# Entry
Amino acid sequence: MSTTTDLKAEQRAAKPVLQLGDRIFSGSAKGAGILILVVLAGVAIFLFSEAFPALVAPASEIRGGNGLVAYIWPLVFGTLLSAMIALAVATPLAVAVALFITHYAPRRVAQGLGYLVDLLAAVPSIVYGLWGFAVLAPASVGFSTWLNDYLGWIPLFAGPVSVTGRTILVASLVLAVMILPIVTAVAREVFLQTPKLHEEAALALGATRWEMIRMSVLPFGRSGIISGAMLGLGRALGETMAVATVLSVSGVVTFNLISSSNPSTIAADIALQFPESTGLAVNTLVTSGLVLFAITLGVNMLARYIINRRREFSGAN
Amino acid sequence: MSIDTQRERSPERELDTSLDAMPVIRGQLPRWSPWVGLVAVVLIVGGVLSATGLSIGLFAVVSAVVYAVGMYTASRVVEGPRKATDRLVTIIVTAAFLVALIPLVSVVYTVVSEGLSRFDAEFFNSSMLGIVGEGGGAYHAVMGTLIITGLAAAMSIPVGLLTAIYLVEYGKGRLARAITFFVDVMTGIPSIVAGLFAFALFALFFGPGVRMGFAGAVALSVLMVPVVVRSTEEMLKIVPNELREASFALGVPKWRTILKVVLPTSVAGIATGVTLAIARVMGETAPLLVTVGLATGMNLNPFDGRMATLPVFAYYSYVSPGVPREPSLERAWTAALVLIMIVMALNLLARLISRVFAPKTR
# Structure
C-alpha cells in the first residue's frame, strides 16, 4: 500500500519545476548512497592490492615455508570449528530464552528481561576476552578433566587436559555467549509475529502450552531461527579479540577440544601477528583476511536470503 | 498427543467403560506444587552437598536435574504424560534463561570487582608515559577513544542518514536495490577486515607501517555506516504517508517536507539508532589494533602517529603486562570497567531517548 501512494506522490511531485533545494537535497542523498558503493568497492580493491604480493610470492617465502594454502588452511579450520561449536551451544539456548521471554515470563517483566539479554550484546568483545581468560578458563579446567575422565574415548575430549584452560572449547563458549543475544533477538521477533489466532486455536483445542508452542510457534518461526543462527555464525566467524585473548594457539589441525595445542582462527591470527609483521607477512595476513571476508559474506548472504524468502510468503512485516 | 486423543475416542474404549466410570477431568497437582517442590529440592540437595563439601555450580546443576525429574514424575503419575511434558519444558526453558544470565552477571561482577581497585583520580589524570609498575593511568586512552569515535561518528552519521533518506524517499530501481544489498553486505564485514581495509587504504598513500587515529576512524565508520542506515531506514519507513501527502498538498517542496515533517517525526528513533551504533563501535578493538596501534603518551592529533584507545590499552595491559604484573593487570580491568560503563551508559541513553521523545501516537 505504502509503495503505491508513494508512487503517486512521486508523480505529483515530479511534475512541477524542481526547486534548487530539491535538486541539491536529492543529489546529496543519492551521492551518499553512491559513496557507500564506492567505499565497498574500495574495500575489495585495496584488500586485493595488498594481498596480491602474497598471492604471487614463491611458497618458500610465506611464513611457515609451505605456501599460502598450508598457512591459511589450519586457520580456516580453527575458525569454522570454533564458530560451529559456538553455534551448537548458542542456538538451542537462544531459542529457549526467546521462548521464555515471549511465552513464559510474566507479561509485565518480559520486556525488561529481553533488555537484559540485549545487554549481553552491548558488552565490548575485549571485555569478554578478559573475562574468558581470567574467569571462564580457570573455571573450565575441572569440567574439562571430568569430560576427559568419563568421555575421553570420544576424540573430541581425548586430552591431555590443558592446565590453563585456554582451549578452543572455552573460546567457543565465549563466542557462544557473544552470539546468544543476536540469535535470541531474531528468534524473539519471529516468535512474537506468530499469528495470535493460531496460538489461541491450539489452546482452545485443549493443547497444553508446550503443545501450542510446538504446533504453532515453532513451525512458524523455523526459518527465523535458522536465519538468526546464520547471522550469529557470521558474527562468530569474524570475532577477533575474544579468541585472540582466550586461546593459546599452536596452529595445529585437531578436533581435540580440551588440550593445550589448539588451532588458531583467521581473525585472532591477524590480531596477534599484525602488530609485529612487515613486508610479505602483512600481505599474507591481508590474504587470510580476504578469505575470512569471503566466508562471512557467503554465510551472511545465505542468512539474508532465508529471511527475505520467509518474508515474502508469510506476509509478516 | 494425537495418539492419545485417538485412543480416548476409539469405540472399543467407549464400549468397555461406562461413562460414569470415566473421570471428567484428570487429577491436577495443586497450584503451589512447583514452588514447594523447588524449595524442597533445594533444601535436600543443599543438605546432602553441604555434608559432602559444597560447590555452588554442582549444587545448582544437581538441584535443577533433581527438580526437573521429580516434577516430571509427579506430574506424570497425577496428571498424565501431556501435562508432565509441559511442566518439563517449562522448567527447561526457565533454566535456559537463568543459564543465559550467568555470563552477564559474571562479567559485570568480575569487571566491577577487579576494576574498582584502580578506579581513582590518577587513572583519569595521567598517561602511561614513563610509567613502569605502579601508578599510571589511561587519560590518553580515554581521549583517544573519544577522538576516534567522534571522528567516526562525524563521518558516518551524515552519510548513513542521507543514504537512508535516499533509500526511503527517493530510491527506486537498480541503484536503490544495489545500495540495499551492499549495505547488507557491509553489515557482515568482520571488524578485523574493516581494520585491514583502512590499513590497506592508508598504506597506499603513506607507505607500509602507517598508524594513525584517522585510519582507525575510517575503519570504525565502515562498521558504523550500515548500522546507521539500517536503523534510520526502519524509522523513516514507519512515518505515516498521510503526513507526507498532507505536506505535499500544501505545496511544500519535497526536500522541505523531508526536513520539516519526516525527520522531526522520526527523530527519536533515529537518535536511538545512532546512539546504539556509537556504543557498538566504541568497544571495537580489532580494527584499532591494526590501524592505530598503541601509544604510551598523550597524542591528540589523529593525523599523526599512534594513539592509545581504551580497548587496545586494556588488551595490551592484560596480555603483555611486563614486570611487575599486578599493576598492569589492574589497569587493564579498570580500563575494561570504564569502557563497559561508557557503553552501558550509551545504551541506557538510547532507551531513554526512544522513550522520552517517542512520537505521540494519538
Notes: Residues 318 and 329 of chain B are 5 Å apart (CA to CA). The two ends of chain B are 46 Å apart (CA to CA). Residues 1-8 of chain B have pLDDT under 50 and may be disordered.
